[in-house]
Amino acid sequence: MHAFLFQRRMTTKFSFVLMLLAIIFLPANAIDYKYALFGVDTYEEFHDGLAKYYDTENKLYGYIGTNGKPAIASQFIKADNFFNGQAIVKTPTGEGIINTQGQFLLQPNYSSIKAEEDIPGLYIIERDGGKGVFYNNRIIIEPYMPDISTHDFPFIEGVNVLDGKYYGDISKSGSVFHTDIRKTPVYYFDQEGYLIEKPKIISDKGLEVFSADKKYGIRNASTKKVILQPVYSYCKSQMWVDERVILGEGDNEYLIDGAGNIILKALGILYFNHTPVGKFINLTTYGDGGIYTSLYSLDGKNLVPPTNGYIKPLELGWFICRNENIDSYVLNAKTGRKYDGEYFSYSDGMIRVTDNNGKGYYYVNAETGDRLPNNYEIAYDFSEGLAVVKINGKKSIINKKGDIVFTEQDNFKIEGDKFSEGVLGVRSDYNNCYVYNPYQDQNKYTYRQDGIKSKISDRYFYLGNEALKNKEYAKAKEYFYIIMMNDPQNSSAINNYGVCLNNLGYKEEALEAYQMAADIDPDNTIAKDNAKSLKEEIKVYKRENRSNTFWNALESFGNLLGQMSNALSGGNSSYTPSNYSFGGDDLSEASGNQSASYYQTQYAKWESLAERHYNSITNLGIKIRDSKGNRSGSTLQSMGGGRYVQMKQQFREAQRQMRNTRLNAKNKGFTIPQSKWETATINY
């Protein structure tokens, strides 16, 4: 995932040493997941291309964009996720609403703002104990009413409905006249947010309910031709569902179609479901045992017999039910199949149910009716085809078939509840970051975080120095190694890495680290002093012990790695540690008259090498064994840590040579088309 890139010419001996150390000391928490937005202090969901983050310095909230940069500066005491291009935020003066540019649509002067998610752009606002309505970017009811709540079916034929505790007549100008606190008022708004008179609801076929002599019937709204004579005492609602309407007479209520025919006669209360399933109707009756409810289709067929419990609509013909024995289940009204358990949530076409036997949660596919085979200790809503669950104490990601996509590890924790806009919040190596949805286009976003090097350095320097104080040199070495992988020019980290190696007994390797730190930063006097002191110590040691056993063995090991390099690269690579180095230009211009074919041949050579290394790195991945023998990394073939570092260096050197060859050719008047391998990137 990371690359420890040394941008200085290294000696052959140090190359061997580094590869050996990388294999021995590569942190066990290395992982091959491709991260997005690595190192930010947030794992919040993205909405409208923004995710909120908490600035630990000023202790305020802001929003980051998909490029990893702050899009809206941290300035809020509280911040909600964006929805429909708007978000509720809180400042010292109160709560307000902003757009995606951070501009206030509603100034932060309110004690409370509640978004009505079923009605985009609708908010209940509160100030000085009074409530009002903000809708369509303007205040349509000033906050002075005792209570306001959205109706169960917010839009009927494009009309928004609100109810409150006070009854009143509302004119088109917005005036409210309080007349009776015993009744429940209903306020109607058009989609522009303007208050209107109660509308006439017309069916799809142009029918309406009309009244004459305090009786109700049905007629054609345009021609006024009577379909059903006004013989019913009341119309409880002018809501039409599939050309059906409910009328009442005495204690009976009737489901009547557009031709005036009675489909269902009930001694009780009929009502349409408040979600747009469009196929079912509930009946509520009152008896000695309490309140009974049953479920019918719109053709009058009984689907659920009367029960002293409840039946609530869900989605797509699904219902939440509880019978008189307080047994809960989810019902598929289309098939009649029951799924025992307490309904928990519906999302992304999947129903989440709590097992009645206390065995956690399970999912049901609302479209197919299939129940996923497993129960889960913890389960969250599906989103973008995936869900976070907990199995055997660890969180995993599953798809809609129940297949595990990936599982968290000791150094890789799933923090977010669900995917949002292609990413999920996770925590890795003490950093907050995101992991991509493998089922979505990862090129959709350009997650890169400014200042990541400094963030990682600050965090791990603290941890590394604390470990050094406690003489935990092996642990400290891993922290400094992480800094080096992310910031290879960090002289202080390389020096401290050498300190750890020295204390662990790797004197020669520590000296190389000190010297490299001094080369990178000539002003690093600490590294220079460490190198000078250790060099004298090694000289004394060598005078006392002239044996070259260690170096002979090390050279043999290096040769072995070189042979492995050839084998893994297909057996054709001539770039082994002993004859491959960085910093030079392999294109000789001695003759001064190279042909176009010469440059093309050179470019093709480096192109082939870049492609080979790219495929080897991305296909093989990296597997690491920690001190306990546990392996981590790619599920494919294994690659040693030293080999990984070396190959990635060679890949980038090949790209550099491709670029130099192409530019040299251009200077000589020759054009070489740029290959995709010249700009290819490896994200781990």
Question: How is this structure best described in words?
Answer:
With 684 residues, this protein is an alpha+beta fold. Among the domains are: 50-194, no CATH class; 449-546, Alpha Horseshoe (Serine Threonine Protein Phosphatase 5, Tetratricopeptide repeat), CATH 1.25.40.10; 554-679. Helix content is 25%, strand content 34%. The protein is built from ten helices and 45 strands. A four-stranded antiparallel beta sheet has the order 1-43-42-41, with no helix packed on it. It has a four-stranded antiparallel beta sheet with strand order 5-6-7-8, with no helix packed on it. The longest helix has 27 residues, at 641-667. The protein is elongated, with a radius of gyration of 35 Å.
Q: Please outline the major beta sheet.
A: 4 strands, antiparallel
User: Could you say which overall geometry the principal axes of the C-alpha atoms support?
Assistant: elongated
Strand content: 25-35%
Distance between termini? 3 Å
Rg over alpha carbons:
35 Å
List how many beta strands DSSP finds: 45
The amount of helix comes to 10-25%
Name the average pLDDT: 75
Number of helices: 10
Return the structural class: alpha+beta
Low-confidence stretches: 1-32, 165-183, 553-592, 621-627, 629-641
What oligomeric state do the depicted chains represent?
single chain
Order of strands, widest sheet = 1-43-42-41
